[in-house]
Amino acid sequence: MIDIYETEFRKADLNLLVVFAALMRERSVTRAAAALHLSQGATSAALGRLRGLFDDELFTRTRGGIEPTPRAVELARRIEPALGLIHGAVTDRDRFDAATTRRTFTLGMSDDLEAALMPRLLNATAALPGIRLAVRQASRNTVADMIDRGEVDLGVAAAPVHRADHRSRDLFASGYTCLFNPRLLPLRTPLTLDDFLAHPHLLISYDGRRGIVDDLLEARGLDRRVLASTTHFAGAALQLATLPVLATFPTHAATVYADLLDLTATVPPIPMPQYTVTSIWHETLTDDPAHLWLRRLVEEATPSGS
Q1: H-type helices in 199-273, by residue range?
Q2: Is the pLDDT of residue 8 over 60?
């Protein structure tokens, strides 16, 4: 078996796999070259050799850089954990030291979760100069594909769609809270249903047409007047500073925006469901020391974290 490995390895320079990992991470030949301290020409040449090695285009050009092919995504699932093991063997380190490592971790989440988690995460990593956190917008419907494409290291979402090769962990429970500006809309709390229906609303939804509040009201034969809609909770919160309207937010985000913008937070006058926010990742990263550290970091930063 050793002879077989030696024969196969003669066909490939293992440094090419390092270039492959950088291209997957950076989604740009130029940025990958900078990260590897190589010239752009050398990185492009390495990509050419990788294409020949795996008999696949691996990356296609886009307006913003490069995108991996399905074959590249599948290779990344196996190559990146293997590189981590090799790195540990070469450096005689099988532990992750956040105090000395230089690394960017990318999280996939919607902006309501970003509002609740990122301040805590940044406080927790402020004394770690080599750690950088990046966030990409993701929803429960998109985060699994982003994980599979290597675009995010860890997803956070409410009931995320996932497959057999994903792993997940429940983080915290949340629900819904109404927000309004008491200086522009002097209402008593808790809100009555009459007040809720009498005043205009800002709608936050992915399609900008209707949300869970509309579904619940419709089931009771009621409706509300929507003044405007947006796809981002942060944008809606800023509008409350100047408009006499109501808006319904996830409770974890409503708490943050109420404190920052001096808004009133109150329980909705109609029963609304509770839900669980979950972290999700690819199974190949479950035992990776760096990923274990990242998952613990996120768990400790949740509203219920200690």
Answers
A1: 212-219, 233-240, 251-261
A2: no
